[in-house]
Amino acid sequence: MYKFLSLSLLFVWMILGSTASLAKEEPKITTTKINDNFWVLHGGNGLGANVGMSIGEDGIVLIDSMNVGKGKLLIEEIRKISDKPIKYVINTHDHRDHRGGNEDFVALGATIIYPDYLKHTGYQGASRDIQFKDKMSFSANGEVFTLYHVKSHTWNDVIVHMKNNNAVFTGDNHATSWGPNIGVMGYQGHRIVFDLVLALANEDTLVVPGHKALADLNHIKAFDAKTKEWFQHVLTLSKAGMSSEEIVNHEKTVALFTWFHGGEFPDWLKPDRQLARVQTTILADASNTYEMSTNQLQRYLGSYLLSDGSKVTVFADDTGAFAQKDQTFMANLLIKSPSKFDFNGWDEKEHLTFELNKQGQVKKLSFNVNGVEQFTAVKQ
């Protein structure tokens, strides 16, 4: 009897041990072969982003490098397909699940490519890199890679177009089971990305999102339409006096949420995260802004010095006006009046108040949170 019990316990222990071992097993990278020279390696389950891989006589060009700590695993999977040298890694943005393996590839001789916008982010960059402004094109493996710097999901997103393979990489601005795309500039940032992608794509284009399943032009159009519908719906209800809590439980809000997430609510999209999506959408409303000419805006641009020696820089480009304080913050500015610029999407009524003299020249600014001044800075 005791022998039988011992064998039974041993059998139970073996089953439990086997189950525990399976639970700890490293997630596996899966692959999609588009053709002999073009592959997509899929992340997920903590591995990180989808990775594009071009293989040819010039070596290997990658788009993204998966998560921190996953670079070596990605290299192992690549080596099952090709032993050619890995020359370049293009980052679609600086979040760790897209650039985490960078240094593992640098160690193999690769060069990392991203926009020259790192001064506005927390990422310090790779130890060997190429940085570009606005747009960059290069040829390798019989392919033309064109990289477009956009500000949408983050400040330094990159849309990658592979001309000859007719493929577009959208980064985290779009996915087949995620959304809507709100990002750092609200609907304007989404519009910038999707106008570009729609101009690059046709009915045969392969669309590679930052995560989840591959897509096509039809999904891009549907995602774009649903994102527009999301913003219109949430802002209309908000302006009608409905609270964020009421909006998040609205029947149409629920229907839109589930559309973006493959027909259901994923486990991670808890009520607090749903509420945050609604609130961020409301805070990113750029419909009620003060019209200011380019010449008028010029007087606000430049550096402002704080008493501790740090600086706030106010600058502008063809997408809008921005403020940055060293490595402390970066914000798109919504101009509300000649003296008040709100922070797009920020949730504590953050804004800059400018002091102008009688001649209309800007003398200094103050940074305010919930109506309380945090610091002042004098224009240099």
Structure description:
This protein has ten helices and 20 strands. An eight-stranded antiparallel β-barrel has the order 13-14-15-16-17-18-19-20. The longest helix is centred in the N-terminal third of the chain and has 23 residues. 37% of the residues are buried. A hairpin with a 4-residue loop joins strand 16 and strand 17. The N terminus is likely disordered. The chain is globular, with a radius of gyration of 24 Å. With 380 residues, it is α+β, with helices and mostly antiparallel strands. The chain has three domains: 189 residues, Ribonuclease Z/Hydroxyacylglutathione hydrolase-like (Metallo-beta-lactamase, Chain A), CATH 3.60.15.10; 54 residues; 86 residues, Lipocalin (Beta Barrel), CATH 2.40.128.
List the helices and strands and how they pair.
Layout: H1 2-24, E1 30-35, E2 38-42, E3 51-56, E4 59-63, H2 71-79, E5 86-90, H3 96-99, H4 102-106, E6 111-115, E7 129-132, E8 135-140, E9 143-150, E10 157-162, E11 167-171, H5 186-200, E12 206-209, H6 217-239, H7 244-248, H8 251-260, H9 271-283, H10 294-298, E13 302-305, E14 311-317, E15 320-325, E16 329-335, E17 340-343, E18 351-356, E19 362-369, E20 372-379
Parallel strand pairs: 4-5, 5-6, 6-7, 11-12
Antiparallel strand pairs: 1-2, 2-3, 3-4, 8-9, 9-10, 10-11, 13-14, 13-20, 14-15, 15-16, 16-17, 17-18, 18-19, 19-20
| Low-confidence regions | 1-23
- In the CATH hierarchy, the architecture of the largest domain is 4-Layer Sandwich
CATH superfamily of the largest domain: Ribonuclease Z/Hydroxyacylglutathione hydrolase-like
Major β-sheet profile:
8 strands, antiparallel, barrel
* Main CATH class of the largest domain: Alpha Beta
Mean pLDDT: 92
- CATH topology of the largest domain, what is it called? Metallo-beta-lactamase, Chain A
Write out the strand line-up for the largest beta sheet, numbering strands in chain order. 13-14-15-16-17-18-19-20
- Level of helix content? 25-40%
Return Rg in Å.
Answer: 24 Å
